[in-house]
Write a structure and sequence with these properties.
7 strands, Rossmann fold
């Protein structure tokens, strides 16, 4: 059986240092730690494959831009015969304060265009989520501008400190299930 973990983000160097690419950062760290040695282009995503326990693990970074992420993920679930409700999506979340990681199953899109695209393309919002808090924009700043603007060094360091925590949350979901991960990561 294949398990799929998708980090949401936008391709290209102009988006590398943005809050919206938190999911890509987590996938990169997981790939490094699990020793993914080869990335391929598949279904509109960069895909790294590795064995994890008894399962094939697919690590993916959609290259379709955030607003169309669902198309790539839908193609991957079909290609790997994966149940959408077991796909793990790693993404930034405006509704969580900085330096927060939370795990959940399902839910709405909360205005997040990547989650909206996933829900539309998969026909369900009942996928697993590892959410990385980025906080709300200051004042009246537009949310889209906030998530896509280059981060200051201090903000980038705070986000980067959460990447290993989010990667551990993903591994916890894979090894022990979402309920156990929610108990571990959502307390406090």
């Amino acid at each position: 059986m294949a398990r799929i973990v998708v980090g949401l983000g936008n391709p290209g160097p102009e988006y590398e240092n943005t809050r919206h690419n938190a999911g890509f950062r987590v996938i990169d760290l997981l790939a490094e730690n699990l020793r993914v040695s080869y990335w391929k282009e598949e279904a509109g995503a960069k895909v790294g494959l590795v064995r994890f326990g008894q399962d094939d693990l697919v690590l993916a970074k959609p290259q379709t831009f955030m607003n169309l992420s669902g198309k790539a993920v839908s193609k991957l679930t079909q290609a790997y015969d994966a149940d959408p409700s077991e796909v793990i999506i790693v993404h930034d979340d405006l509704d969580l304060p900085e330096e927060t990681v939370r795990v959940k199953r399902g839910g709405g899109h909360g205005g997040h265009n990547g989650l909206r695209s996933l829900t539309e393309s998969l026909g369900t919002g009942d996928f697993l989520r590892v959410r990385i808090g980025i906080g709300r924009p200051p004042g009246r700043q537009d949310s889209a501008d906030f998530v896509l603007e280059p981060m200051s060094r201090r903000v980038a360091e705070r986000l980067e400190a959460q990447v290993p925590h989010a990667a551990q949350a993903v591994l916890h979901v894979l090894e022990h299930g979402v309920d156990s991960a929610m108990q571990e990561y959502n307390a406090g």
